[in-house]
Design goal:
Layout lengths: L7 E3 L7 H6 L4 E2 L17 H14 L9 H21 L2 E3 L4 E3 L4 E3 L3 E5 L2 E9 L3 H10 L6 H11 L3 E6 L7 E6 L2 H25 L5
Helix pairs in contact: 2-6, 5-6
C-alpha cells in the first residue's frame, strides 16, 4: 500500500538498510528531537552537538556511525512480533514504511508502523521493546515522558492528530497508550527546527572540502 502525507517524501527503503540511512543523511529525525526540546518544552543544551553531527554528515555525504547495544539489537529483532501482537490485540491494520521527510519543516521520522482505518492513514505506531524490569516499570507508571518528544515529532512530520505508543516484552502484558497531538509543543519544535536547519546548511557549506 502506498502511503502519502502532505508536504512529505515517503521512502520505500527498508528501515535499517544502507538506503534508509542515506535517506536520513543530515536530516533532523524524530528520534533526535529530545536534543532540541525537552518534554516540558524547554530548549535543550544539546542542540550544538546535533548541529555538528548533522552538518558533518551533510558535508561529507556519510552517515555518522551509531552504537548498537545488545539490548537495542534485541529490541529491533523483537519489533515485528510486537507489531503483530498490536494488530491482534487491537484489531488495527498496520503497514510499514521507510523514512518520511517533511519538505516544509525539514523534519523526518521512521515510524514503526502506520495505522490504517478506512483505507487511509489514521495514526502511527511507536514501539519500544525494553528489558523486563524496564517494561514492568512502564506498566506500573505508564508511558515514560522521555518518549514524548519523539512521538510528538512523528505527528509534526505526518500531520497526524494521534500516535500510539507501545511497550512490548515477551512474557509480560503489553502497554498500549494513545498520545494526542500537542500543537503548542510542536510549534516550539518547528520554530527551533527552522533555525537549526539553517545552521546545518551554513556549517556544511562553510566547512565542506568537496567541490560544489
Amino acid at each position: 500500500m502506498e502511503i502519502q502525507f502532505i508536504d512529505c517524501i515517503v521512502s520505500s527503503n527498508e528501515q535499517g538498510s544502507h538506503e534508509w540511512h542515506m535517506d536520513r543523511l543530515g536530516a533532523i529525525s524524530a528520534s533526535q528531537v529530545s536534543q532540541i526540546l525537552t518534554p516540558t518544552g524547554k530548549v535543550s543544551s544539546s542542540i550544538e552537538k546535533l548541529v555538528f553531527k548533522l552538518s558533518a554528515e551533510k558535508a561529507i555525504g556519510i552517515r555518522a556511525e551509531t552504537f548498537t547495544s545488545k539490548a537495542m539489537l534485541v529490541g529491533t529483532n523483537t519489533e515485528p512480533e510486537a507489531r503483530d501482537r498490536f494488530e491482534v490485540e487491537t484489531g488495527e491494520t498496520v503497514v510499514e514504511t521507510g523514512f518520511i521527510f517533511n519538505t516544509k519543516t525539514s523534519l523526518g521520522c521512521s515510524p514503526d508502523g502506520i495505522i490504517i482505518r478506512g483505507g487511509v492513514p489514521a495514526s502511527g505506531l511507536e514501539i519500544k521493546c525494553p528489558m523486563p524490569k524496564t517494561h514492568m516499570e512502564y506498566l506500573s507508571k505508564g508511558m515514560p515522558a522521555i518518549y514524548m518528544p519523539q512521538v510528538q515529532a512523528c505527528m509534526a512530520v505526518t500531520g497526524m492528530q494521534e500516535w500510539v505508543f507501545m511497550s512490548y516484552c515477551i512474557g509480560l502484558k503489553p502497554l498500549v497508550f494513545t498520545c494526542s497531538r500537542d500543537d503548542d509543543w510542536i510549534d516550539k519544535l518547528l520554530n527551533e527546527c527552522t533555525d537549526i536547519t539553517i545552521m546545518i546548511n551554513e556549517a556544511a557549506d562553510s566547512f565542506s572540502d568537496r567541490p560544489c
